[in-house]
## 1
Amino acid sequence: MPETTPVPVPAIPPSRAFRLGVAGPVGVGKSSLIATVCRALGAELRLGVITNDIYTDEDARFLRSAGVLAPERIRAVETGACPHTAIRDDVTANLLAAEDLERDFDPLDLVIIESGGDNLTATFSPALVDAQIFVLDVAGGGDVARKGGPGIGRADLLVVNKTDLAPYVGVDVARMVADASAARDGRAVVALSRGDEASVAELRTWVLGVLASFRAGAHVAQDPGPMAPHFHADEDGGFVHSHEGERAHDHAR
Ligand SMILES: Nc1nc2c(ncn2[C@@H]2O[C@H](COP(=O)(O)OP(=O)(O)OP(=O)(O)O)[C@@H](O)[C@H]2O)c(=O)[nH]1
Ligand SMILES: [Mg+2]
């Protein structure tokens, strides 16, 4: 057999939209961050948004009323269960919503998926998103970043949000960012306040950078890791959800 010279395989640019997940505890500002990204990039990128709530479509309604995107480009997934189940354990509803959006508004550049507010262990499956942002806020306490967990440690970007509130809650933002960077082995951290233009510009630059890498076929989706094993049931006992298990935990909604 004649010897063949291997032909270099060029990176194949993906044909669908870049899917970006936004996760983090309840109330840290995930929907507001998405509104900020839509305002900052809406003129240059074709955007779609998917929200996840347990029992409502409140986040989708908030984003529609914020007027940052045409209302039909914002879709709600009602998970009916703990948020992490729909972004990690069984991503079918979110994948279908993403594919619907991408088909209805073809071509889209970016689909942002907001997880329902969950605890520090919930992260997106790389089967659903290409990259993910984990959000904390200063009001949750300056020491949270140091506590680590899969999202804090290994999400593509960690946002320390609502830095404008830091003086009122006694948090040293520079210290919190340094703690976060140490917990992340130097992965990206942005200190954000929606009213601070420089911080919004930093977030915008990060999104454009990761999108460019995705389009060049150079981006590799990372898995920050699964939830810690746990077990829990809903209030009326009608739904039981379990993993191999240890500690119980709560979801606020
Ligand atoms: N001071 C301040 N408040 C903010 C900022 N971003 C968001 N908020 C406020 O924080 C609260 C929660 O914001 P949301 O965007 O709804 O938070 P969320 O993480 O989407 O909440 P859930 O989806 O319920 O988990 C709202 O009252 C926002 O107005 C910020 O940069 N600074
Ligand atoms: Mg929200």
## 2
Amino acid sequence: MDLEAPPRAPKLNADAPWDAFDPHAYIDRNYRELLDVDAEIIAYVRDHFGDHFHKRFERPVLGIDVGAGANLYPALCMLPWCKEITQLELSSANVEYLRDQRVNFGTGWESFWQVLRKDPAYEEIHENRRARFTDTVRVEPGNLFDLVRRPAHWAIGTMFFVAESMSDSHAEFRSAVACFLRALAPGAPFAAAFMAGSTGYDVGDEYYPACDVDEAQVHEALRPFSENPRVLRLDKPTDMVRPGHEGMILALGHRNSTVHF
Ligand SMILES: C[S@@+](CC[C@H](N)C(=O)[O-])C[C@H]1O[C@@H](n2cnc3c(N)ncnc32)[C@H](O)[C@@H]1O
């Protein structure tokens, strides 16, 4: 009898069980407490967006968080700068989670918000942050590959742990990055985060595919859409909870004005 586990079959984005994604199991593993690495990421993103908008008057703008899943901090990072934030999400379970959170977000997200308050624009809306979140966020069920139909629509964007954590195909990884960036208007600031060296991950009882990327591949995927993005490698912290990856990569940049057909 052969007791060896069969190798996992390759999985494209459309093959994974997204509707069975358990947001509560995902939060328990990743966001139950604020990890040092998330605090570091939030501080970088806060400063990147702050640098952009403190110098400019054209705000509030439209923002998008692509593949929002069960993570509210990308939307919180965009909150002072936006009149509307679209949380685009494929999984019906995550859409339901996001709709509940929009009305009254869980107290667990407060520690993430605290990191943002160091910038006066966030501090200014601190008292009203919950009402502001409810009024600004719009949860949209949908597939990021369909963003090709809405080029240059949003003026700020985030995409966290999606392009490399949705498929084991590098072609789909590059395509997801392209779809995200094409949806942003010229000059729009963006932040995108990636797991480095991930080979897949469990959420509750389900297994989800990932593709192994490094800083060079992230750079390569961003290059047509952004001149000189900052691509930062954040070390794997000791309390990191997702097995099978080597750390995190954060990309910060601005959408260029090149038109892509
Ligand atoms: C690893 S989770 C990341 C969630 C969240 N952004 C975060 O920072 O933790 C990947 C997310 O991408 C979503 N997703 C997968 N394929 C998608 C697609 N084609 N379009 C939109 N969202 C997708 C999943 O449902 C899931 O919420």
